[in-house]
Amino acid sequence: MHLKNNLYSIDKKLLLTAGAKVNESTLNRIARRAGEIHYIKVKSTPLIKDLKYTFSDERYEVMLSPEETNKKILKIAGEISIPKLLLKELASIKKKLPYTYHHILIITILSAKVALDHHLENRYDIGRVMRLGLAHDIGKSRIPQQILNKTKPLTPQERKIIRMHPLLGYILLHYYYGKEHNKYDYASYEHHERLDGSGYPRKLKKINRYSQLISIIDTLDALISRRPYRRAPYTLRSAVDFLLNEAKKGRLNKRLVYLLITYARKDKPLLRGLKVSTKRRDFLPVYNVYGKTIHN
Ligand SMILES: [Fe+2]
Ligand SMILES: [Fe+2]
Fold this sequence. Notes:
Blueprint: E1 7-8, E2 14-16, H1 24-33, E3 39-41, H2 47-54, H3 67-79, E4 81-83, H4 84-96, H5 98-115, H6 126-135, H7 145-148, H8 156-162, H9 165-177, H10 181-184, H11 186-190, H12 209-224, H13 236-248, H14 254-264
Antiparallel strand pairs: 1-2, 3-4
Bound molecules: fe (ii) ion (2 copies).
């Protein structure tokens, strides 16, 4: 894969020049160039206040109850350390792309919420889930805003550019995490992949379980958010129907989608014996050009 433009880190280092080939050796070089990484604990940064505020997002009122779990998530979040440059990157996203910033924080806490479920039998390290959530969409900051905010269908070229964000984030994370990069960079690269190989950018069928979790929450939030490319967002119900259908088609992890549903329902059903129907039970947004290009 080749880059279209120069790629700079948040501290203005030129990481790759336009046209550069991205491969193992260029990526390793970037990780080595990072040198010693300066970490900072989340609780001593503005991020902790923003994460706390994110719990008050009304759209997730049902999913983000009860209160005790939220406190637990916030406590774990406070204890994780992230590279100072990643923090700087997030601060810049907050200013430039407030929607993306809120989205990133929502993904971080909701993924932690699902990962805390005892049905997953401690298969997830919650701190790692949150680090991956915080890093998953940083590549968006390198996509021109006029493309991100477009209200009309994208041109094939624009779609190609947007689809670069997983790779751009992945490259940036090599620099921000240095030699520790492979612990925290993969969800950025994989969160738009689908288990049947229909995702992007690599059409993977084998996807890391952390990335699978992030991608389900990511899809949910993308659907129920107000976006320029549709007049109204999906309702939580129609979004859940959408996820169920994706799971049925073998694109998303069915067990994780089911777990998410147990949180999304007011009566908080148990996973065992959970009844779901894949019939459409709610209306879809009227004008929605998400994922469409002018040629389809
Ligand atoms: Fe993304
Ligand atoms: Fe995302």
